[in-house]
Design brief:
By secondary structure, the protein is mainly beta. The protein is globular and about 40 Å long. The chain has one helix spanning 63-66, and strands spanning 3-7, 10-12, 18-25, 34-39, 46-51, 58-60, 69-73, 79-84, 93-99, 102-103, 107-111. The protein starts with a strand and ends with a strand. The chain is 4% helix and 50% strand. The strands form two sheets. Strands 2, 4, 5, 6, 9, 10 and 11 form a seven-stranded mixed sheet that branches. It has a four-stranded antiparallel sheet with strand order 1-3-8-7, with no helix packed on it.
Length: 113
């Protein structure tokens, strides 16, 4: 069984930064993708960024995220991080860590006054 626990969310002003971390336990294999998703109120959950299994290549769902967000994981895959810079109000959402069929409980990010 895999457990994922996110942390690092919070409230920031536009232009601020946050670092999200997902701590994994159980059987984690870096041959599989690991990803961050987010869900804003009233909207569907959407992919933010992922680390490709095997290669470790980083991908971003939206081009505008590539310059502001940075996803990375440790060598063994037990810590997945997302550095978020120049945050905008539209980044407000609950952010979830994903590994195969497993999800964390989410961490809230709020950007605005």
């Amino acid at each position: 069984q895999v457990q994922l626990v996110e942390s690092g969310g919070g409230s920031v002003q536009p232009g601020g930064s946050l670092k999200l971390t997902c701590a994994a336990s159980g059987d984690i294999f870096t041959m599989f993708d690991q990803a961050w998703y987010r869900q804003a109120p009233g909207k569907e959950r959407e992919l933010v960024a992922w680390v490709q299994g095997g290669t470790g290549t980083q991908y971003y769902a939206v081009d505008s995220m590539k310059g502001r967000f940075h996803i990375y994981r440790d060598q063994n895959g037990y810590k997945l991080s997302l550095d978020m810079n120049d945050l905008k109000p539209e980044d407000t959402a609950t952010y979830y860590c994903n590994y195969r069929v497993f999800w964390g409980q989410g961490t809230q990010v709020t950007v605005g006054t």
